[in-house]
Amino acid sequence: MTAAALSVEIAVQDVAGARIALDAGAARVELCQALGLGGLTPSTGLIETTVGAAAEAGAAGFVHVLVRPRGGGFVYAADELDTITRDIRAAVALGADGVVVGALTDEGALDLEAIARFIDAAGDADVTVHRAVDASAGPVEAVAALAALGVRRVLTSGGAADCRAGLSTLQTMVEASGMLEVMAGGGVRIPDIADLAAAGVDAVHLSARGTTTRGGPSGPGGGVAGFDVTDPGLVRAAVAAARLSR
């Protein structure tokens, strides 16, 4: 039997990016804002309009919402954990097919108690644990623990700065993952996709970003000039490479 092709997830920050991912044949999007900070929770309006775009296209299981209240590390105070839980419920109520979450303990271990709480808040929606795994003290052990927790997939670079450096660890994670899907993310380039497929991962994740100055200069107090956009050519190339990988 021929192995299934890798699925492709695109991190997007607007509805336009989601439509590009839909048109190019990506399996899903990770919907977020502020990718420059590693991604933060998107607004309710953005969730609602992206869910609507996916519904119009007949794309089931397409919208997965990153729930992360701030930049920085993944050790959260009680109020932050409460915010994450509430945002998970809100995203699912708006029609999100899944949420992307993660948390660590003060000791650097994956916070399994918090993640169990997130899973409960998500109900029937998919739960992906993000690259908090890569910041943990034991990334391989973290993946093995998630396999028994009811998480659908894990996004990881193999505990390294990028997937190329973490390739051998990604393969070890796949072997320890059981039914958990392993999605490679972190500096993924189109030529890397074949190597990631050979390592046995189930999916690849990339932002496929470009920059535009559309809208003119931001002016005093408006922040940096320009903003991120999703590059259609990169998304199409990633989907094509994934289809050829197996």
TrEMBL record:
<dbReference type="InterPro" id="IPR005627">
    <property type="entry name" value="CutC-like"/>
</dbReference>
<keyword id="KW-0963">Cytoplasm</keyword>
<dbReference type="Pfam" id="PF03932">
    <property type="entry name" value="CutC"/>
</dbReference>
<dbReference type="InterPro" id="IPR036822">
    <property type="entry name" value="CutC-like_dom_sf"/>
</dbReference>
<protein>
    <recommendedName>
        <fullName>PF03932 family protein CutC</fullName>
    </recommendedName>
</protein>
<comment type="similarity">
    <text>Belongs to the CutC family.</text>
</comment>
